[in-house]
Amino acid sequence: MQAESGQALSDIVSRKELERRAGNGLFFWGVGNAPARAIAALARASLPVDVVFSVMKTKPKRHDVSPERIVAWRKYVDEFGVVRALPKHVLVTSRAGRRNCHYALMCRTEHRLEVSDEGPFDPAAYRNFGAGKPVGASQTTALLERHAPDGSADYRVAMRASLTGAMWTKLIDPVDVPSSLRRALDETPEDERSWLELVKEIREPKLVHKNDHEGSQRLLFAL
Predict the structure, then answer these.
(1) In the predicted model, what is the mean pLDDT of the chain?
(2) Which pTM value belongs to this model?
(3) Do 143 and 36 form a contact (C-beta atoms < 8 A)?
């Protein structure tokens, strides 16, 4: 994990903690790559899968630190292929791109989300689930299974949670986040009620009625 959608990692974790509290332990963590093939079967069987978060060693890319546009996602595809609205407390953003989809981990934990040191994580002790291939240096999100005991590790476990529901899901139906609401998001609301209000405002842009100079009428998004 690293900076994304114009927000520093510390700010992302702070708002995810608000989201977790507002959702009684449930939060979504946005990721850039599609789910591993086995995820749908694991989700339908409700098998336990742990989530381990670590901080990327490389610096975030410029387009993640200062994106020109960001979008918020409003729907997801569940483990049975049904399109559903995201829970009202969930907000997943990403920089705007050519794709009309994004992805997210559906996570649950009863513990406070904060970046800390919960011990080493050794990627060499794991293999990609099913394929048996070593963890690639460019993999940012991967479904793994243990292959060997932990050895020396450069990565540290920063946070933990468990997957739930669809586990690793596809997001659709994006909406642009205007600059005014991006500033509000950067400030991070103080409590769960304020968080819910901000999520609703971002995900449900209001339509306003306006007359143009010639007297005809138009509907415009309020930005």
Answers:
(1) 88
(2) 0.88
(3) yes
